[in-house]
Amino acid sequence: MPTNLLLLLLFGVRVLAICPPMCTCSRGHRAVDCSARGLAILPDSLQHNIHFLNLSHNRLQDLDGLLNHFDHLRTLDISYNHLHHLPVGLPRALWDIRASGNYIRQLEKNNTAYHWNLQNLDLSHNLLERVVLINNTLSNLQSLNLSHNKFWTVPTNMPYNLEMVDLSHNYLLQILPDSLDRLPKLSRFYLHANRFTSLSNGVFSRLDGLQLLTLGDNPWACEDEENINHLLTWMQQTPAKILGCPCYTRPTCGEAHLATRRTWHSAAFTEPPLGGDAHHPGHRAPMQVVTSGYLSKSAQLNVGQYPSTVNTSGPGEQVLIVVGGFLTSTPDSLSTQSSTTIRTRSTKKVLPGSAHSTSHQIHICSFETTILSLLCTAVILCAC
């Protein structure tokens, strides 16, 4: 009897020790929340069969080899700590890794080489400049968030089952040819708030499953028609919805089934519809939110950079718009004319009344000169 009592007491102590005192546990102690506790080391007494572990908003700097024995762990949240790399030896059973808000500079292929079960990977708000992904090992990865990092080019060799990729708020300048050709299931692609000026021809043509693409808040070189026209043509033909259309005043384009009139312009930021009202040139349309949390601060603060319509015309005619204080004409449909030609023609059309006024003044001056000449001749004859 004393032996049984002792075993019972020991078992009771073990049960009480399953949940670390600085954490909260639920779901039979298999969901453990240790977030925002000021932790610098991994808590003791974590049960080996936990399914969910939240270590976010702490001061953790190194978790290498400390989590590999949690064979049943499905979700790991290590966001907003002081990590400089993704921990080595993470459990292979993981479905969801959340590691945003750290100081991770690169992702090596060995960091994710054995995560066949991984479905979601969030590495946003880090210092990433390059990632090496092996699409054969990440065969179940569906969501990849790399926003708010320091990428200059879109990562290549991304896992082929991806459905969502967020690369917004980086320094992206280009997408290498063929780097998106093996992503047939990609439906949501976020590329807004980068540094794109143009994109190579056919870069999105193999994304058969694309439903949503964001391109706003990029410095598109709309005056360089030779390099931008193929992108604008693709946007007219794609069934996908595009938010922040390059070189258009409309915030949304694409969706080939929609027959809408679009006006081409060269504003630096293109996502909010800030074009003036056609019937009231002095009135600006109200700000519209494109997506929740998507409208850039720069777009809101640079209202003066957007064009405002000052005159409208019928089909096939040109529309005059104001860009940075200058009048330019824009074709109702895309053309192959150079921007210099367009501006030259608009200069001839802008102020026809001025030319008439000038010729009238010249005519008056000529008449006055003739009268003076006759008077001078009369005076000379009288003197003689």
From TrEMBL:
This is Oligodendrocyte myelin glycoprotein b. The keyword Endoplasmic reticulum does not apply. It holds the Pfam family LRR_8. Transmembrane segments: none annotated. Keywords: Leucine-rich repeat, Repeat, Signal. It comes from the Eukaryota. Residues 18-44 form the LRRNT domain. The lineage of its organism: Eukaryota, Metazoa, Chordata, Craniata, Vertebrata. Residues 1-17 form the signal peptide. SUPFAM superfamilies: L domain-like. The keyword ATP-binding does not apply. PROSITE patterns: LRR (PS51450). One of its GO terms (biological process) is neuron projection regeneration.
